[in-house]
């Protein structure tokens, strides 16, 4: 969006413009979530300044959400089409274990090959979900709930009680989880770069914009001639590929892989997207909102113990955020529908 520079004007016109900007900021879900995130960080820092103002605190603040950032970005792509992918945690586990096995079974294998293998496996698992949802017409909740258990069962059978440790993986690969550039972890830079690419795709590529159209009204999208099944399949493949990348980076971040990797993280990914303003009923939201939601979700879990809040209330706060986001989304949707009805009447 371009802007034209003009001479500032005094009077009501300028005041109205300022009010318009402020009103737009208030309506922005991303800004609202970012403000909540800042307040949480400030509150935790006031209680314990090492939360931010220490090398470990600053590093953890940026590094800890990185994996969830990737999963939330992939989940957002699926949710805007009125679907959901509950199998991302199991997909991440399989790709994390594949990463470790490749380094063990193929000594000297190039790191980029391992990364691509993880992404490819995630994409293949996403194809399974996408085909069943888009072409078989089975609800995504049912399909991905089933594949979540299937993929996890494959992981348990394949890995068993085996544990891949840091000494079995190259130091150059593990450095991805420890290296920093100007105090910013490399893993965080990679995650933000991926989120930026997804955002660029959604707002510039025709197929990306069509995902929103499909989520807004699937029937109208079909009448308009959009390739709905193909686009939904694409969303699931991209979600699976990002979960695959998350699995690879999980192995680098923690230096070990067990069969319990990713347990429960699929719900965190959904929660992060919803908290970040992605409409659970599809058609609206941004990948940046999902990313901020992921950071907020992880930061709250780190900050609440510092603030002396018991574990039960920690979970309750997260649940309240998710419920509040869903209720707000419905209220805004009803207001938009009412406004459209009033415009038609006039």
From TrEMBL:
Bilayer-crossing regions: 31-49, 61-80, 86-104, 111-135, 141-160, 181-202, 232-252, 273-300, 312-332
Database matches in PANTHER family: ABC TRANSPORTER PERMEASE PROTEIN YPHD-RELATED-RELATED (PTHR32196), AUTOINDUCER 2 IMPORT SYSTEM PERMEASE PROTEIN LSRC (PTHR32196:SF29)
Keywords linked to the UniProt accession: Cell inner membrane, Cell membrane, Membrane, Transmembrane, Transmembrane helix, Transport
Keyword rRNA-binding belongs to the record: no
Subunit structure comment from the entry: The complex is composed of two ATP-binding proteins (LsrA), two transmembrane proteins (LsrC and LsrD) and a solute-binding protein (LsrB).
Name of this chain's protein: Autoinducer 2 import system permease protein LsrC
Organism: Nocardioides imazamoxiresistens
InterPro entries: ABC_transp_permease
